[in-house]
Amino acid sequence: MTNIFAKVIPILLLISLGQYLRYKEILHQSSIDEIKKVVIDIALSAVLFIAFINMELKAEYFLVFIIMFILMNIFYFVGGALNRINRLSHPLLPFITSGFTFGLLGIPLFTTVFGIENIGKLSILGVGHEFFVWLLFYPSMAMKFKNQKFSLKTVKEIFQSPLMISIILGMTFNITGLGIWIQENPVVNGFYTTIQYLSNLATPLILIIVGFGLKFDKKYMKQSIKFVMVRMISILTVGYVCKYLIIDRIITADLMFDYAYFTFLILPPPLSLSIFVGAYSTKEYEELANNTVVLNTVVSIAIFILFIVIKQF
């Protein structure tokens, strides 16, 4: 039981600290936005670089990358199919049932409990997701609400993303053996140690950011609850059908991978969803998307903590 509290309390305290900083107006949204950019471009990129440079790259992992990309598309089309049901119909539904807060919630939750040394298990799920989000998810939103057309510029932006660059570099260093050389060479090792220091910033800062953003709008609560229920049911159902029928036949039985997969599936939609909805659609849709993400974030954290408690027995 003591072990449970040791893993859960840091999550709750850091999120509470974020709430406190907002309540006392010690930090403002503009400051949080700047910190978030540092976290995404530097700290999270460092986490992913470390994860992929140390990961044991197996042939089946590359199949998982592809499968996860396909699975993200299935989630999107499931949302589109559910959108045909009158009681569920809403233009945002396909975007609610697809896309995950992989970096800004999945990584800090997972590493807090299972350790940074196991982040590779979660990271292999995130590669296909990142391609989906930037290649199809946000472009589809622009095409739906603003009638924009898909362009090669979108593909170029994917590979210019700090997160994707860190993944590619980490995998390249891993495959070529340069990763081992960097860690063993006394001079270059300073570079690697610096990246480790930066990666250690990610989890506490992200959880503080999450806590800062937890505020609800009662006006949209009913629709948000409906969205969260539809998302959790559809994603967990389709996700585990895919795992049992396909992924389990590819990946060797691995309990830590199972934990990572569960953690991934319970994550809320991207924290940036409301920003893109606001840019492409109406203010009302932006506020609804934000309220849904906040509610789903609370639900996801609660489910994750409950999962950790149950896992200990």
Could you explain how this protein is built, in words?
This protein has 313 residues and is mostly helical. It has a single domain (2-311), classed as Na+/H+ antiporter like fold (Up-down Bundle). It contains 14 helices and no strands. The chain has helices at residues 2-23, 29-54, 59-82, 93-96, 102-114, 119-146, 152-160, 162-176, 178-184, 189-212, 221-250, 255-265, 273-280, 283-311. The model has no long low-confidence stretch (mean pLDDT 86).
Could you give a short description of this structure?
It comes from Anaerovirgula multivorans. This is Membrane transport protein. The protein is built from 14 helices and no strands.
Q: Can you tell me the number of structural domains? A: 1
Helix content estimate: over 70%
Judging by the overall fold, what is the CATH architecture? Up-down Bundle
Broad shape:
globular
Key traits:
313 residues; mainly alpha; Na+/H+ antiporter like fold; 80% helix; 0% strand; transport; transmembrane
List the helices and strands and how they pair.
Blueprint: H1 2-23, H2 29-54, H3 59-82, H4 93-96, H5 102-114, H6 119-146, H7 152-160, H8 162-176, H9 178-184, H10 189-212, H11 221-250, H12 255-265, H13 273-280, H14 283-311
